[in-house]
Specification:
Radius of gyration: 21 Å
Shape: globular
Distance between the termini: 49 Å
Helix content: 40-55%
Largest sheet: 9 strands, parallel
Number of helices: 13
Structural class: alpha/beta
């Protein structure tokens, strides 16, 4: 397998991995609306899936239309990585990424995710374990890592100099500290420093954090010498963010809600239909009646409910517009 990272045109603008968000149905919707340069799976816990390998299937299920697709894994036990790496390599992904930046307490309390920042011994053992497993699999697959800046410039420099010593094809840096989590100002000055360190080793460097548009992503790449940007939260319920100067109309949004709901039911069944709610919450924003629509969508139990909610919303909007037209008022757009 070729190293897909080397074939991507710069700057690389990708969809960031998000747990509970970048699942198979969401990725299918994303590529049909606007294809990012690269996408990632939700992260997969090495320890959990070593103990319960039967749970892996849904997490690493994908279709060829989603390529290039990178499987992201996290954990805190080096010995748990070879098994999951072997299975991901066998599944035929385009790459594997190790998450060393997640701020979730459920992840960091065991020493994984962002808790690995500055823990050079454990981080090195995990990376080496993944590298060795890939070599043994005899299926070449580029390895990348996603992490964060540290609390001080000195530790940030030391951390990324350390990571750059491993055979990564790409390193993504989130410009917030672990303590900041997913909010607060992004330190783009620190990201620039990281880019200088990483790129000096011949490794691609991508930035992440707080990006709200395709134009902003490109501006950050140019301003901070980055090879690319990963867009995260701003893409939830807004797959159009990867289209140039485009704003969908209400009809297109409603149609996408139905298509996404149908894909979610096909994949999860009615029992786990609520997995799509994070996306419904994002879609139903910024237009008249969206709050009521959002509340009803978040009560749906299946695609039939979603279709009835959308149908009712369309009918009520037509009636509202007719009333406004009769009164001489101009309906809000």
């Amino acid at each position: 397998m070729d190293n897909f990272w080397k074939k991507l045109k710069l700057p690389i603008i990708g969809l960031a991995p998000m747990d509970g968000v970048t699942d198979h149905p969401a990725r299918r919707i994303q590529v049909r609306v606007a294809r990012p340069d690269v996408m990632f799976t939700e992260f997969v816990c090495a320890e959990f899936l070593s103990a319960k390998p039967e749970k892996l299937g849904r997490r690493i299920f994908f279709s060829d239309e989603e390529r290039p697709l990178v499987a992201q894994i996290f954990g805190h036990t080096p010995s748990a990585f070879p098994g999951i790496v072997e299975k991901i390599a066998a599944a035929g992904f385009d790459g594997i990424e190790i998450n060393m930046g997640c701020p979730s307490r459920n992840v960091t309390k065991s020493g994984g995710g962002g808790a690995l920042i500055g823990n050079f011994k454990l981080a090195g053992e995990i990376i080496s374990s993944a590298v060795s497993a890939l070599e043994l699999s005899k299926k070449y697959m580029p390895l990348s890592v996603k992490t964060r800046i540290a609390t001080t410039p000195a530790v940030t420099r030391e951390w990324f100099e350390f990571l750059s010593g491993f055979p990564f094809s790409a390193i993504t840096v989130h410009g917030r500290t672990l303590k900041q989590g997913l909010s607060g100002p992004v330190d783009w000055s620190a990201v620039s420093t990281v880019a200088e360190i990483v790129k000096s080793r011949g490794i691609l460097c991508l930035g992440n954090g707080g990006i709200t548009s395709l134009a902003e992503a490109r501006e950050k790449c140019a301003a901070h010498a980055l090879d690319g940007i990963l867009i995260g939260k701003a893409a939830v319920g807004n797959p159009w963010i990867f289209r140039e100067n485009y704003k969908p109309g209400i009809e297109e949004i409603l149609d996408t809600i139905i298509r996404h709901g149908a894909l979610a039911q096909e994949f999860y069944g009615e029992r786990n239909f609520a997995a799509v709610f994070k996306h419904f919450n994002g879609y139903a924003r910024g237009f008249d009646g969206c709050k009521h629509l959002r509340m009803e969508l978040l009560c749906s139990k299946n695609i039939g409910d979603v279709e009835r909610v959308i149908s009712g919303f369309v009918k009520s909007e037509k009636e509202r517009v007719a009333v406004l037209a009769g009164s001489g008022a101009v309906p809000a757009v």
